[in-house]
Amino acid sequence: MPAPAWLWLLLGIGLLLILPLLGGPLVLVDLAVAALVLAVVTAAVPGLDAGYQLVIYLATTLAFLPSCYAVAFRLRGRRRAAASGHACGGERGVVVRRGRGLGVRVHGETFPARAADGGELRLGEAVTVVRIRGITAYVRRAEGSPASRP
């Protein structure tokens, strides 16, 4: 195996080992994958000019970037939704504006909201989360809030 192939291989493995230890974002795994791909290319084509190696590295990085973002986004979304969904049942929140509609803010996170009884929500109203299905919070007026009194 030519010397540049070993260098790219070590860089790729090093990045794969160091990034998780440093808490680096999953998107940076793209850099390690590109280094490993370049190790294979330089082993298959000995004597490849350094300029071509750099171009191949950058092209490979750009090619893998969208897929790494997609994987990182899906993993982050699953963890967040699962944790938030279990943690918010019975929690109190406040109705806030969310895009064109209304949402509920609980522990600093905003969820799309619907009234569990099918009623209407009012901006600024104190609510209690009944359940979360998907990303939508089903809420009822909180006990003691002005709107819940007769």
Write the SSE topology.
Layout: H1 3-22, H2 29-44, H3 50-88, E1 92-98, E2 101-106, E3 109-115, E4 126-133, E5 136-141
Parallel strand pairs: 3-5
Antiparallel strand pairs: 1-2, 1-4, 2-3, 4-5
Helix pairs in contact: 1-2, 2-3
Structure, described:
The structure is a single chain. The protein has 150 residues and is an alpha+beta fold. It folds into two domains: 3-86, no CATH class; 89-148, Nucleic acid-binding proteins (OB fold (Dihydrolipoamide Acetyltransferase, E2P)), CATH 2.40.50. Helix content is 50%, strand content 23%. It contains three helices and five strands. It has a five-stranded mixed β-barrel. β1 (92-98) and β2 form a beta hairpin. The longest helix has 39 residues, at 50-88. It starts with a helix and ends in a 9-residue tail after the last strand. Residues 78-86 have low confidence and may be disordered.
pLDDT averaged over residues: 80
Number of helices: 3
Order of helices and strands: HHHEEEEE
The secondary structure category is alpha+beta
Quickly count the domains.
Answer: 2
List how many beta strands DSSP finds. Answer: 5
From the alpha-carbon coordinates, what is the Rg to the nearest angstrom?
25 Å
Quick one: biggest sheet?
Answer: 5 strands, mixed, barrel
Task: Name the shape in a single word.
Answer: rod-shaped
Low-confidence sequence ranges: 78-86
The level of helicity is 40-55%
Instruction: Write out the strand line-up for the largest beta sheet, numbering strands in chain order.
Output: 1-2-3-5-4
What portion of the residues fall into strands of 2 or more residues? Answer: 15-25%
- Cα distance, first to last residue? 81 Å
